[in-house]
Amino acid sequence: MKRNYALLLLILLPALLNAQAKSTKTQACEFEKLFSLKPGMNMPATIALLNQYSRITLLSQTEEKIKPYANGGDSILHQLVSYRVDSSQCLHGRNNLIKFEFADGKLYKAYIESSYGKNEFTDMMSNFNFLHTEILKSWKYEKQITITGGTSGMGYIFNKTQDKKVKVDMCQLQYIKTDSRNVETEMYKLEVLWVNLNNTKMENSRY
């Protein structure tokens, strides 16, 4: 199957592979089957495809009207749906979570989170480095970021162009160390955020 960098989960789901998974598990994942989610898809199609290859549980679903931008236009119906991934050939981390956001029924944002124990840093970094390489195949401009404050970590923001006038089409990869004040509850979270506004009325000033 031809790999199209515009396909959403080509960028997102590899982050959740366990680096120490057996090769048979990796092959069983058959990533190509998951890569048909595209920016602009409606919610039923998005969820149906996710449900086809993973056992998922709905956590929440909300919607609200976003006021028009200052320069005019119509309001936008914003919908957020969150799922816990209970079982998947592709997801081997803990407490896997997927969130999708829609503007007027069109997919424009996705967030994936996978958790690792305090002794699983090596596994998490292996996944992080693999995904970093994969994202650079499609987003050639990267900026490294450092996460400080109540948590610590690092990551990258990726863009396909340096032109600030075009609509946002970006990906962010990062990991954070949580509960650093309590050794017993320390854990790592690997996070991926994807945003593409090109199929929506959303503007860069607010999304």
Helix-strand makeup class: alpha+beta
Give the strand line-up of the largest sheet: 1-2-3-4-8-7-6-5
Give the beta-strand count.
8
Shape assignment = globular
Strand content: 35-45%
Which stretches are poorly predicted, pLDDT < 50 over at least 5 residues?
A: 1-35
Which series of helices and strands comes N to C? HHHEEEEHEEEE
Radius of gyration: 17 Å
User: Helical segment tally?
Assistant: 4
Helix content: 10-25%
State the end-to-end CA separation. 32 Å
Question: On the 0-100 scale, what is the average pLDDT?
Answer: 77
Largest sheet: 8 strands, antiparallel
Task: Please give a structural write-up.
This protein is α+β, with helices and mostly antiparallel strands and 207 residues long. Helix content is 19%, strand content 40%. It has helices at residues 8-12, 23-29, 43-53, 121-136; strands at residues 54-66, 76-88, 94-103, 106-117, 141-147, 152-159, 169-178, 187-196. Strands 1-2-3-4-8-7-6-5 form an 8-stranded antiparallel sheet. A hairpin with a 2-residue loop joins strand 3 (94-103) and strand 4 (106-117). The longest helix has 16 residues, at 121-136. The two termini are 32 Å apart. The relative contact order is 0.17.
